[in-house]
Amino acid sequence: INLQRILKETDSDYLHNVLVYVSGHIMRLLMTNESCIFCYTYLKECTDRETCYLIKNKQRGGLVNPIVEIVAIVKIANKVYDQAYEKKNQFSNFGKNVTEEIDSEILSCHTFLLA
């Protein structure tokens, strides 16, 4: 039982590290392509950021600590994708349905992310 708990915690830590790392990459892309000065300023100056062991360990000056909103969206997308993947044979257009499910999840439960 302890081994299963340890493996689950390790998997959870690993997943968290990967999702935060990916969120940082997405944030970097958003900042590079953002044309709205207010949006860019918010992304650049927001102090409510998340980090992880992977970013801290691999940091050589180029990695971005993402804002918590981007991390939340990435985690929601990952959860919805995992759920949809388990029943993928039920979907005829997998990508479109997953995208719609992610939008629906964010709109129904996490409206603070759109403020």
Q: How would you sum up the global shape?
A: globular
Number of helices: 5
Q: Roughly what fraction of the amino acids lie in strands?
A: under 5%
Determine the structural class based on helices, strands and strand pairing.
mainly alpha
Helix percentage range: over 70%
> What's the order of the H and E elements?
HHHHH
* Rg calculated over all Cα atoms: 16 Å
Q: Characterize the main sheet.
A: none
Terminal CA distance: 43 Å
What does this protein structure show overall?
The protein is mainly α and 115 residues long. It has five helices and no strands. It has helices spanning 2-33, 37-45, 53-58, 68-86, 94-109. Helix 1 (2-33) packs across helix 4. The longest helix is centred in the N-terminal third of the chain and has 32 residues, at 2-33.
What are the defining features of this structure?
single chain; 115 residues; 5 helices; globular
Give me a quick take on this structure:
By secondary structure, this protein is mostly helical. The protein has helices spanning 2-33, 37-45, 53-58, 68-86, 94-109.
List the helices and strands and how they pair.
Layout: H1 2-33, H2 37-45, H3 53-58, H4 68-86, H5 94-109
